[in-house]
Amino acid sequence: PSLGLIGQLVRERTRASRRTLLRGRLAAALRHEPPDAGKIRLLLDAGLVDAAATDAVAWAPGALLAQRASDVAPVLGRLHDRLVGLAGAEFDPSLRCQIGLLAAEAAACVDPGDSRAGSILAELAPPDHLRAAADLVEARVRRVGGDPTGATGALGRARSRMRRHPAADLALAIDLEQGRARAQGGDAPGSLTAFQSAARAAEELGDPVHSEAARLGAGLARFAMGDLSKCEADLEWARASALARGHVPGALHAAVHLAEVQRVQGRYSDALLGLEPHLDRARVGTRPFLHGALLLAFAGLGLELFRLGEVRVLLAELDAIELVRAHP
């Protein structure tokens, strides 16, 4: 029998009181381990809501930044629902608000059409020092839902609130979101201005993750404006920086866009050479959509060079990814 079936049998044959005791002991043993989704679920199972919330606030922002909203949404959704059931006096309102904001953002990223994100935001009563952060999350929810105008309005409110509670990291996040909202609305120059501001702020803060996001966004804005030389420089910087710190998804994302810039200039061989080192990385432990994007980029370049046999092999690999996603 599979390990999953064995686990199910063990759970069924263990009394509820015994299961609770075991969960509590395991949660206590893991208390000082780095936070992740499994640990937070275990803390919740053991009734350690405070510890689960503290770990969630430490773990979820990085996971969302790494585009792992599908990992975050179920855990934060469950934690948020648990907190809703607690009396207000029993739990720190700032921590409760942060959990709600993270849960709303994760829900919107997983399914932009899901009303849960909006419902969570509508129910929140952020403390004054978190109102700008709440506006920022509202902007993200509106943008992923296809409303760049509403996102820009929410970002304007966030900037106004920042005057009372200035925070350099929040100002940087607002600039990044402004760049994305402007890009979605078709305002490439406005998008570039926002991303350039974010890049300067990230450099001052010594923040390579947001530096890469800002340079990637700036590159895409320049691409829309036809400034291919500077676009390529931005994308290459983002790719190299992500690779240097071992962040494979970030490097793949930038590499795919960089190959497209070279493709439109007819530099097919350069584009293939740039993508080739990333193919094995994409096949090992990366997200299916990034793997698929890389395969599509390769296949498009193969067609341009009439390498039809290679294209068939790449498309077969793409079909295999889709089959695994449909039947995990």
What's the number of helices?
17
N- and C-termini, Cα separation: 18 Å
Mean pLDDT comes to 87
The proportion of strand residues reads under 5%
Please give a structural write-up.
It is a single chain. The protein is an all-alpha fold and 328 residues long. The protein has 17 helices and no strands. Helix 4 (49-65) runs antiparallel to helix 5 (69-84), helix 10 (168-184) runs parallel beside helix 12 and helix 14 packs antiparallel against helix 15 (268-283). It is globular, with a radius of gyration of 22 Å. The two termini are 18 Å apart.
Write a brief structural summary.
By secondary structure, the chain is mainly α. The protein is built from 17 helices and no strands. α2 crosses α3 and α12 runs parallel beside α14.
What does the secondary structure layout of this molecule look like, with pairings?
Elements: H1 3-13, H2 16-29, H3 37-45, H4 49-65, H5 69-84, H6 93-110, H7 116-123, H8 131-144, H9 148-162, H10 168-184, H11 188-205, H12 208-225, H13 228-244, H14 248-264, H15 268-283, H16 288-304, H17 308-326
Helix pairs in contact: 2-3, 3-4, 3-5, 4-5, 4-6, 5-6, 6-7, 6-8, 8-9, 8-10, 9-10, 10-11, 10-12, 11-12, 12-13, 12-14, 13-14, 14-15, 14-16, 15-16, 16-17
Short descriptors:
80% helix; single chain; mainly alpha; 328 residues
